[in-house]
Amino acid sequence: MTTREGIICAGNWIVDLVHEIAHWPAESDLVRIDGQDKGVGGGAANVVTALTKLETGLPLWPMGAIGQDDFGKFIKAHCHELGLPTHLISEKPDTATAHTHVMSVTGRSRTFFYQGGSNDVLSDQDFPTGVFESHKARIFYLGYLTLLADLDRITDDGSTPAARVLSRARAAGMTTCVDLASVDRPDFSKIVAATIRQIDYLILNEIELARASGQTPPVASQTPNMQDMIEMAKALIKDGVRRAVVVHCQQMALWIGVDGQVAHVPVVPLPRELVASPLGAGDAFCAGILYALHEGWTPQRALELGHAIARASLRGVTATEAIPNLNQLTDQLDRQTKGITT
Question: Does the CA dihedral 229-332-139-77 come out positive or negative?
Answer without folding.
Answer: positive
